[in-house]
Design a protein that fits this description.
About 70% of the residues lie in helices and about 10% in strands. The protein is α+β, with helices and mostly antiparallel strands. The strands form two sheets. The protein has a five-stranded mixed beta sheet with strand order 2-3-1-6-7. A two-stranded antiparallel ribbon has the order 4-5.
Length: about 375
Amino acid sequence: MTQSDALSEKVYVELVRSLYANVLPSKIMLGITGLYVLLIGRSAGDPALWTIGLAACIACLIRVGITVGLRATAMTAALDRPAARRLELSYAGPYYVYSILLGSLGAYVFAGPDQAAQMLTICVLVGYGAGVATGTGLRPMVAIPSMVMALGPTIIASAVRLEPIHAGMSVIALAFLIGGSQSVLLQHRLVTIEIGKRLTSVSLARRDGLTALPNRLALSEHFEENAMLLGAGSAVAVHYLDLDGFKPVNDRYGHAAGDELLAAVAERLRGAVRSGDVVARLGGDEFGIVQFGLNRGEEAELLARRIVAAIAQRFQIGEDVIEISACVGTVVSSESGTDLESLLREADAKLYQAKRDRSPIRTVV
């Protein structure tokens, strides 16, 4: 695999992970779908409408269940392109089915005379389209077909009525659909470029000579620049990790192999962190990672688990297969004015506590 192909794979994996980053909007949509079907079903009293609506609710429930069930794997496992592709298809399948059923329900409502139901329908569809663009926008092949399948049937059903209001609604909805699709494509291009830059570590100038990761000074500068941007309810996580079994590698295979192993570890860490997170080499076999913009402490624990899983995979160093592991100490803080060195010291203490407890991860909030 060429360096360009390797980078492309890592970018793709990162984009697929974004699909599973936030399950809450899908849960909210499940509740909205249930309420929507209940309201229009009671209003119309139509068995066909109830049937389509119930199918849509079931599809949405399955969609939420699959996302919740696979989220830990998506966010923590060491993924290659085939594994990421399977996760993407698992996500997209029920997403498409739900979009088709929601679109069919909207078209059925607009083919009828109930204007109140039509008003509620267009509200739900536009909200769903906006949610799709926001939640899955980094994967256009999921987002754009879903928006077309949800809004398209209603646009057509409304247009064929040949009434000024319905024709105008169709034109406006179509304009929103086109504009939303363009925004998704633009967002995808921009984020893909940004992730590529982050993965190749060109965003920070000060580098560790061996791994090309930011060094401790660069990490400190980045922390100070971004700590002021923390919003209300937002938190920062600092991870301190070191490698278990690294010294025996130096003793058995030599320092050149140890250096090559550290460079390979750095490459895996780049691929494990989220877009916007920063990983740095602190010295020796110790690394630090800073996560900004956390809404829940669970996000920090998921990254810690992903790091442990990534390092646990075998390394091919020359003709030798080497196995090591990582131990992580994590601190999550929402307090303004906290300095990086204090958080690193606390995370380091948690790291050694984790070693004493024989647990690869220890988190404190």
